[in-house]
Amino acid sequence: MSEAAEAAKVGRWREEEERGNDLVLRLTLLVARLAGRTMTRGLLLVVTFYYALFSANARKATREFLRRVDEPTSFRRVHRQLFRFAEVALDGTYFLRGETKRFRFTRDGHEHLEQLVREGRGALLLGAHLGSFYAMRGASADFDMPVYPLVHTANAKQINSLYRALSPEMAERVVEIDEGDMRFMLRVKELVDQGAMVAILADRVPESANLAEVDFLGGTALMPTGPYLLASTLRCPVFFTVGVYRAPDHYELHCEPFAEKVVLKRGARQEAAREYAARYAQRLEHYARSAPDNWFNFFEFWKTP
Questions:
Q1: Number of domains the chain contains
Q2: What distance in Å separates the CA atoms of residue 64 and residue 277, rounded to the nearest whole number?
Q3: Other beta carbons within 10 Å of 121
């Protein structure tokens, strides 16, 4: 199957997943406001059981991942994966409202970002659909460390709607990626030059993305190279970041230096970007194995042979 066909296939799966995510997020938001965290988690057990029962695609994709990390592939284990996603989504509503005191945080590598803040330098943060990006962003507010997520235009309405409902200030700190209008890159460079942290989830494949085949959990996955093309333009430090959830209320916030500066050789830019994507996949695999219940890509992730 061609890369274009693979990307289109992933795009269709992503659309279905986004609809499911939107439903969970909106229901979570409503119930969390009315009932609190404990009762909402009880309701989410039922909601995710229903989703696991009737979403064949989510079951198939989750079982494929679980098999690759040597976890059981039973329905009960699939349901646990979906419930863990819903738990993290629920906690995200509290992080967006600035309610972080109910959670415990441990930080590994946070001193790298604190140093940048002291120096007034910005950076590009590479995240993933593993654990909680909202925990990373919510906790950064305690250190006067502005974080601006980059989101694709197709998903911006959903994300901005959620942000506006929870925190209008957060909604102002979203930068839309419009591949038909590259002016967004000027905004990103402006933010980084001002000392802001710009974050992008680098494991998700837009249909029109430049792709790289990388080894990931014993198979071949397609990863976007756009983040590294962007980083080479910004010429700023790049970090791999992830917020791993450990029940019932603990988040491990990890920040690893990825590259002081991304340099892509002339005439071999795509191949050089592929090497960075492969390095990213190695770090993502590490955390996927150490916290498999934090993996939240519920679509066919690996390339079809």
A1: 1
A2: 22
A3: 17
Is 302 contained in some domain? no
Q: Which residues span the domain enclosing 224?
A: 3-294
Q: Is residue 290 part of a domain?
A: yes
Judge whether 151 and 159 are in contact, CB under 8 Å: yes
Burial of 195 (0-12, 13-18, 19+ CB in 10 A): middle
pLDDT in tens, 37-95: 888 899 889 989 999 999 999 999 999 999 999 999 999 999 999 999 999 988 988 88
How many residues make up the chain in this entry?
305
User: Which residues does residue 147 pair with via DSSP β-bridges, in sequence order?
Assistant: 197
Strands 238-246 and 250-259: antiparallel
Neighbouring C-beta atoms of residue 102, cutoff 10 Å? 9
The tokens for 257 are 């230096």
3-class SS at 120? coil
